[in-house]
Amino acid sequence: DVVVSGLTNSKTRGGEDAFMLMLTDPMSNQNALAGAREVIDIEFGNISLKTNDGLLKPDDQTYLAVDIENKSAIDLKNLNLLVNKSSVSPSVDVWNTNLAGQLKAGQKKTIYIPLRANQQLETGDHTFTLSVNAGSKLLASNTTNIRSKTPLPAKIQIADYRFVSSKTSDDITLHLKLEN
């Protein structure tokens, strides 16, 4: 940031008025980080898929919770969590850019990344590369996997049956043996 101040030198009314002007470089955060490359320490914590069983299923709409911590001694501004889904099935939609905002020195934060699976999702593993950026400056990256599972329809069939007559009444009981 550059701050300029002074007095105007004008022969009109208010000719000796004070002024202050502050000029801010929109790339200042990035430029400050360029020289501090070695002192920035962003650490990924727990990364989990928020479903009941931790598996992504067809038509699920959920999110991936990503914990990050600023272990460096400086506050970091304008952080983004970018998702590269190069090895993710096309049947999984994920937000590519997720705003994390500011992360003060020593602060932890959880970023929630929306995920959606369509009906064509198949059972398998999906790999995401997550990267934390300040502007266009890469600060940290991590790779994580999630699993998807397509439920199979049950194929129940009758394996055996018997009719059993009651010894004390006219009732007849049907006993079935089912197999999947």
3D structure, described in words:
By secondary structure, the protein is mainly beta. It has one helix spanning 28-35, and strands spanning 2-7, 18-23, 42-49, 55-56, 61-70, 76-87, 92-94, 97-103, 108-117, 124-134, 137-148, 157-165, 172-179. It contains 1 helix and 13 strands. The strands form 4 sheets. Strands 4-11-10-6-8 form a 5-stranded mixed β-sheet. Strands 3-5-9-7 form a 4-stranded antiparallel β-sheet, with no helix packed on it. Strands 1-2 form a two-stranded antiparallel sheet. It starts with a strand and ends with a strand.
Q: Could you give a quick summary of the protein structure above?
A:
This protein has 180 residues and is mainly beta.
Shape: rod-shaped
The chain-level mean pLDDT equals 82
What's the total helix number?
1
Task: Name the helix and strand elements from N-terminus to C-terminus, one letter apiece.
Answer: EEHEEEEEEEEEEE
User: Which residues sit in consecutive blocks of at least 5 with pLDDT less than 50?
Assistant: none
Q: Main sheet: which strands, in order across?
A: 4-11-10-6-8
Number of strands: 13
Oligomer: single chain
| Helix content percent band | under 10%
Strand content: over 45%
Radius of gyration: 31 Å
Structural class: mainly beta
CA distance, first residue to last residue: 71 Å
The largest pleated sheet is described as: 5 strands, mixed
